[in-house]
Design a protein that fits this description.
CATH superfamily of one domain: P-loop containing nucleotide triphosphate hydrolases
Strand content: 25-35%
Shape: globular
Radius of gyration: 18 Å
Strand order of the largest sheet: 6-9-10-3-11-12
Order of helices and strands: EEEHEEHEEHHEHEHEEEHH
Number of helices: 8
Number of strands: 12
Largest sheet: 6 strands, mixed
CATH class of one domain: Alpha Beta
Distance between the termini: 37 Å
CATH topology of one domain: Rossmann fold
Helix content: 25-40%
């Protein structure tokens, strides 16, 4: 895979808390262009907190460390500035927005991302092309955002957003949550179509099954707010067989 000279994301000794409770306890991670990283850990380990902190969620306070994106310190950037710069978060539980159609939502988001005021027709053509590539029904574009959507439809909508917005760095927070096998395959195939030598992915999950369809370059074990082990794709198989207990035991022993 072709690697560009500068990393996309450098997370250095990142600590973060919410309402005075420390959740992230010294996270170090570098993601280069073209790389797909998977973060695996049990529920409550802080994985979703990491996703939210990376995208600037205001409920979380960074107490130590830094986040660099394309060589710039973005630790204090607002969420909208991160989005405009090409960062994307696929939510574990995407919210409903009644009265706002998928195509109008994407028009606003893409205009903010690029600074170009797209017409509804221009955006509709772009959305239809992306939907065709992702194997989605054209009527999907006119539905209100996530209203009445199944779990699989919500997650496919996240992939559609990513296809239209074309971020440089995408964080997918437990995109496999609540999906049956067929929906999981569709989402995984959508992610695979969007992988390029310039785009980086951080896939957050606590199951291996997502990684049966998307092969990461690196897998990291996340426990108690930090990365305790890193390796290649085969590490996911080790975790699936042995679970996280051995890592908990190692952490206690240290």
């Amino acid at each position: 895979m072709v690697m560009l000279e500068n990393p996309l994301i450098v997370i250095d000794n990142l600590h973060a808390s919410v309402e005075g409770t420390e959740i992230l306890k010294g996270v170090n991670l570098t993601v280069n262009p073209g790389e797909t990283h998977a973060i695996m850990g049990p529920n409550g380990s802080g994985k979703s907190t990491l996703a939210n902190v990376l995208l600037g969620h205001p409920s979380y306070e960074i107490t130590e460390g830094s986040i660099e994106y394309k060589g710039e310190d973005i630790t204090q950037w607002a969420p909208e500035k991160r989005g405009q710069a090409g960062m994307f978060l696929g939510f574990q539980y995407p919210e409903e927005i009644p009265g706002v159609s998928v195509v109008n939502f994407l028009r606003t988001a893409l205009s903010n991302r690029t600074g170009t005021d797209y017409t509804v027709l221009e955006l509709r053509l772009q959305v239809m092309e992306a939907m065709e590539e992702l194997g989605m029904d054209a009527s999907f574009a006119n539905r209100y955002l996530n209203e009445g959507f199944s779990g699989g439809e919500r997650k496919r909508n996240e992939i559609l957003q990513m296809a239209v917005l074309e971020p440089d760095f995408a964080v997918l927070d437990e995109t496999d949550s609540g999906l049956d096998i067929d929906a999981l395959k569709i989402v995984a195939e959508g992610v695979e179509r969007l992988q390029t030598d310039e785009r980086g992915f951080l896939i957050i999950t606590h199951y291996q099954r997502m990684l049966d369809y998307i092969t990461p370059d690196f897998v990291h074990v996340f426990l108690d707010g930090t990365i305790v082990e890193s390796g290649g794709a085969a590490l996911a198989d080790v975790i699936e067989e042995a679970g996280y207990d051995s890592y908990r035991a190692d952490a206690i022993a240290q």
